[in-house]
Amino acid sequence: MSINSALNSAMSGLSAAGRSSQVVAENLANALTPGYTRRVQDLNSPGAGVPGVRIGNVQRLNDPVLISNRRVAEAEYGAAKAEADFFSRMSDLVGTVDDEMSLASQLSDFESSLIEAVSRPDSQPRLNDLSVKANALADSISRTAEGLRGLRVNADSSIGSQVDTVNQALKEIEKLNARIMVVEAGGMDAVSMQDQRDQLIDQVNGIIPVNVVRRDNGQVTLYSTGGVMLLDHKASELSFTPSRDIMPHMTLGNGMISGLQVNGRAIDTSTDGPLRGGTLTAQFEIRDVTAVEAQEDLDAMAADLIERFQDPALDATIGATDAGIFTDGGAFYDPSNIVGLSNRIELNDLVALDGTGETWRFRDGIHAAAPGDPGNSSLLQAYSDALNTTRTVSSVGLGTANMSAATLSANLLSRFAQDNETAARASTFAATSFNELSQAELALGVDTDAELQNLMLVEKYYAANARVLSVVDELMETLLRI
Q1: Phi and psi, residue 97, nearest 5°
Q2: What does residue 350 show for φ and ψ, rounded to 5 degrees?
Q3: What is the rounded distance in angstroms from the CA atom of residue 177 to the CA atom of residue 165?
Q4: Beta carbons within 10 angstroms of residue 295's beta carbon
Q5: How many angstroms separate the CA atoms of 30 and 22, rounded?
Q6: Residue 361: which residues within 8 A CB-CB, separation 6 or more?
Q7: 3-class DSSP state for residue 99?
Q8: How many whole angstroms separate alpha carbon 301 and alpha carbon 260?
Q9: C-alpha distance from residue 429 to each of 278, 293, 327 (Å)
Q10: Along the chain (482 residues), what's the average pLDDT of each consecutive run of 10 residues?
Q11: What angle do CA 54, 55, 59 make, to 5 degrees?
Q12: Residue 464, SS3?
């Protein structure tokens, strides 16, 4: 080897060692930085007969298959968690078996107060207590329904926020695509921008699961699982109009709440639709399906309770269009107007203590002209019998069956308790899968011990090449002295 070759080899070795030490230092500095991908310096031979080392580009070390699987698991976990959160909240609203404020407990308290009134129909305190318990029962149903309405509004608001997030992220990815193409065309490294782009893709993926297709010049194209184009050179635009409030009768089907559009085209937002799998369709499912079915169940309970005491055959003072003990917003309940009934159910103002407060009407008839025999408990007994009479009740969640009022309330609690348990198990399973894949991905990240060992090797390479330069310098001085 000539002195010139040795000098060139040592100089290229020093440059390679310097660049390698910089990459190792970046790895160590960002070992705990979320989204950072470990880098390695690409070094290879410049070619046959050419001395030295050629410094290539900085390479990102990741596993595309593992990342894809982790993204699928992350999207599934987000959707499962959204569903579990909804059913957990619904279970809290309707209560549990041992909850004194549950719908079943309130109905039981009303029935117990009714039995006490039967034993002493002349007791004004007992009739007043019956009014209190009846009012508490009606309030618990309407409060639960209003809580459910709040959950629909929250789901709608979450959809709006997620659509904004996706639109912003897609625009940023579009910009990064262009910048990466320019940087790589200039022969420079774009690894930091690629990390940033991957984080944005993860952000979109949690909302809408994506398939990532690598293109030339460092570009990426994004498709949804169902094939909807989200980014191909230019970002797609998602459109959604949030509702300030959502009443029970407002549904996607009747056009009173907004659906989703991509580039002006309406998109199916069901769990089997083209955007399936992430938190966006999960929130649409809650708003448009799950909460609507829960509303039907609550409305069925409210309708059953009102109709039990709105029967003229039970109370002869009730006319064909007169309200009974429980009312539809203070008026007669028309079965054709059942949607949202659970939000509107109220105790009849004639017997409510915060209304007229004439609680003797429980005993003598809701629309009686005047108090009757204070010892007559026949109507109160008929009310008690009406609660235990089996009636046909039908709803999506509860099915169709003959049930007493107590059985209906118990089935309602059981329905949401079972759904809550099922959703919680699904969320736990999805979380476990996501965590396992995340840990596997993290294992490919920066290992500080290994990086420190690499740094020590780089120092040795640097020292060796420096020694070659020193020897070359000594040889040159020797030659000059001759």
Answers
A1: -60, -40
A2: -65, -30
A3: 18
A4: 25
A5: 12
A6: 350, 351, 367, 368
A7: coil
A8: 33
A9: 16, 25, 45
A10: 71 75 79 78 69 72 86 95 96 88 94 95 95 97 97 97 97 94 82 90 96 89 94 95 94 94 95 95 97 96 96 92 95 95 97 94 95 94 94 87 93 93 96 92 78 80 77 75 74
A11: 135
A12: helix
The position carrying tokens 């330069």 is 469
**22-46 b/e with 16+ CB inside 10 Å = b?**
ebbebbeebeeeeebbbbebebeee
> Count of alpha carbons within 13 Å of 182, Cβ hemisphere only?
7
Element (H, E) at 79: helix 64-94
Tokens 């235990």, residue located: 388
DSSP state of 332: P
Please tell me what DSSP assigns to residue 214.
E
Residue ranges of alpha helices (H) inside 186-245 are 191-207
Q: Under a CB-based contact definition with an 8 Å cutoff, are residues 291 and 285 in contact?
A: no
250 vs 113: CA distance, rounded Å: 37
Helix, strand and coil percent figures for the chain, each rounded to 5: 60, 10, 30
The secondary structure of residue 316, as a DSSP letter, is T
Q: Is the pTM of the predicted complex or chain greater than 0.85?
A: yes
Q: Residue 328: count other Cβ atoms within 10 Å of its Cβ.
A: 20
CA atoms within 13 A on the CB side of 78: 24
| Integer angstrom CA distances of residue 94 from 147, 299, 301, 421 | 10, 13, 12, 15
| 402 DSSP β-pair partners | 392
DSSP 164-195: HHHHHHHHHHHHHHHHHHHHHHTT---HHHHH
Question: How many CB atoms lie under 10 A from the CB of residue 422?
Answer: 13
- Which of 283, 317, 320 shows the shortest CA–CA distance to 153? 283
